[in-house]
Each structure stands twice: as C-alpha cells, then as structure tokens.
Amino acid sequence: MTADDLRETSVALAGRALELPELAGAGTVAAYVSVGSEPGTLALLDALHARGVRVLLPALLPDNDLDWGPYEGVGSLARVQHGGRMALFEPAGKRLGPDAVTTTDAVLLPGLAVDTRGMRLGRGGGSYDRVLARLERAGAHPALVVLLYDSEVVEHVPEEPHDRPVHAVVTPSGVRRFPREP
Length: 182
What we know:
Largest sheet: 7 strands, mixed
Strand order of the largest sheet: 3-2-1-6-9-11-12
Order of helices and strands: HHEHEEEEEEEHEEEE
Structural class: alpha/beta
Strand content: 25-35%
Number of strands: 12
Shape: globular
C-alpha cells in the first residue's frame, strides 16, 4: 500500500469504528498505536480523545504482559525499542498497572486475522491473551473489537484452548459482529 492508501484506510477505519455503539457510549477504551503495516489507529485515538473518552494504551513489559497508560495526544507517545523486535509507540507518562484494562468499556485489539467465528490470530507473543485472561478473571466484560484490513477477515484461523472470540471486527469497508458467549 502507498502512503496515501494507508492514510485513506486509517481514516475509513476510524470512521467505521466511531460508529460503533460500544465506542459511542464508552467512557474508557483500551487501544493501541499501530505499527508497521497494521491499519492505522492514530486518527481513531485522536477522535476518541477529542470526544472526552479516556484512552489507555499499552506498554510492553519484559515478560510480554502489558501495563497501561493514558493517551493525551501524539505528543504523549514515546518510541520504545524492545530488544530485537520492532519499536512500539507507548504512553510516555504515568503507568496505571496491568489491571487498568479491567476498568474499560471497550478493548481495541490488534491482530493478523480474524475468522468467521470471531477467533483472532495475534502475533504470537501472548500479550493480548494475558489481557483477555485478566478481563475474564476480573469478571470484566468490555466489548472486544479487532481492527483489520478487509483481506484479513478469513474463513478460519488456528486456535488454542485459551483463545477467546472477539465481539466485532472493524475494517475500512464495514463492521462484522460475532455472537457474545453466554
């Protein structure tokens, strides 16, 4: 994709996501700053922040778990290199602890793909598996939403016993919902 294509998909993705009732009524949203070829999230983060939504962003811990910090605009981000892996943009300010995610109304998750059942394929580090397990242990039930390109919604992804389905996937062309588990 060209830089213009990426910018256009970022704006389209933000527009689709902002139409979600789960985000429209949210007081706090856990999100992330996209990296590499992931669909761009900055337009969405800025729009949520401008609405007065408290946006929490992850900071990768040495054990691959995630701590959380507030997003206060692009100037509140720091580029952090984690060993030989890609650099991530993380909140530069105060950390709220790994359990801060349990106070959210919605969690925006990155992924490589999601299938027709709502199963998400991550990058394999287990960071978001830990987040989902933490939410379950706390009895928290925020909306779980994956942001992807249209081509990343596929028929089937491999799953492991600990994997949990998401509630929706947002792509530049629309939203697909999945049934919530009872």
